[in-house]
């Protein structure tokens, strides 16, 4: 039990390491390591090694299991604070901020980093208060990223050190409003605070911009969720049938530049620029889905919630399913599965990889290439695939029109280039 608001981490580590056999058995179920004391209190077995003195086991735990010990300590701190948070749920947002007085600035800014991707659909009667809490929480933990809050829930992606993101996850899970969330709802990938230029937190009408009032199309009407293993078997069956005109449609809910560098085999990938175009795409291509089983997927799952709800509202599909946790959770389970190429992400990394496949090509020479960069023309800033050879030759814009403009500043809006002028806003794929 932690008795001080500023616990001694070294003492906490020793207490954890020297628990009784019964308590250690509980830890063994929670941690990916075995750490159990023997009958004799002078011997410990861990990772296949036997230690006969406390110095040896302490050094081993410090070198090998430091992250687990930090996680246990953080969880204990937040558990201690949770009753206070629940009592003061309607009060000052500072009561929902975890105590980090035992951590230095370096603990929150140096070390291995990661990026979290998450969402939670739930009723938020006071989104402004949740937004204020999120802003304060992220600033205290030195996190950067983007967090959207609405009356329908929260959607965010943040980056920082593993210490900071660990505290953030536990603060979210301890908050009374988000008790429906689980640890597995956070998608984690390599990265850090450097993946985002700043922190942006705000209140919006929707947590993902589909352009349809949540009161009209609610997330509660979403399609059925499939675990990655179930989705994998569905795709396997679809590919085995080799019948592209069958009763199943594998639908990519993302934008064209996302599916361009990575997608599931045999999918329908709409050529749309924004998710807000998705409802119009469905309306203009209803015959594609009439009488069909639809398997939907997106990056982390949040777009499928409202997207599947919209498709279900049309009452033309036989069944509508969505990949739970999105592509990122699927790749954690099947890194070399049916998804090929890169996974586009909305931060400075642009993409993360789980396999070596390159399914896209350079805009100019056609060589295999899948690393996006921004168009070099000011006021355009669209993404372009230009290989190193072509970039050295000076072709760094997204299209010939922008290439001719160069770096001059004109009055034209960013949409006015060949990339959008030659692409229908809402493609018809029927």
UniProtKB/TrEMBL annotation:
Alphabetized Gene3D superfamilies for the sequence: 3.30.70.100, Rhodanese-like domain
Pfam entry (one): TSTD2_N
InterPro entries (UniProt xref): Rhodanese-like_dom (IPR001763), Rhodanese-like_dom_sf (IPR036873), Rhodanese_C (IPR022111), TrhO (IPR020936), TRHO_N (IPR040503), TSTD2_N (IPR057944)
Gene name linked to the record: TSTD2
Tree of life domain: Eukaryota
Name by which UniProt lists this protein: Thiosulfate sulfurtransferase/rhodanese-like domain-containing protein 2
Coiled coil regions, renumbered to chain: none
Disordered: region residues: 1-34
Record-annotated Rhodanese domain positions: 244-339
